[in-house]
Amino acid sequence: MTARILIIEDEALVAMELRFVLEDLGHEVVGSAGDAATARNIVRETEVDLALVDIHLSDGPTGVALGRELGQDLGVTVLFMTANPGMVRSGVAGTIGVLSKPTDERSVQSAVDYALRRRQGEPVQYAPPGLQLFG
Hints:
Blueprint: E1 4-8, H1 12-24, E2 28-33, H2 36-45, E3 50-53, H3 63-73, E4 77-82, E5 97-100, H4 105-119, E6 131-133
Parallel strand pairs: 1-2, 1-3, 3-4, 4-5
Antiparallel strand pairs: 5-6
């Protein structure tokens, strides 16, 4: 299943690596944003199925509020990818879960596949290793 994915990550090398992985998997990366305002603009201008959201962006720790907004208000499926998973340990309304960084290609693939299956309403038995689910 192909998806339109937005990468919200302020570290250019991490964002570029994620883009390569996602495109190799056949997904369309609709953009990359390093701050919340840029991410909002991209979502307003194009359809986004899934957003991979870091918690700490160039404008501060805005990823949590942004993820909640994208998931609850804008209908985007949201997965957090962060080196600080404890910041969202209790979950964030409207989002699926968190994948701890650093991560590898296989973990990204499994987490993205899981999130897209949930978005489509397909039954999923369990979360892939490394993905901490919310609620």
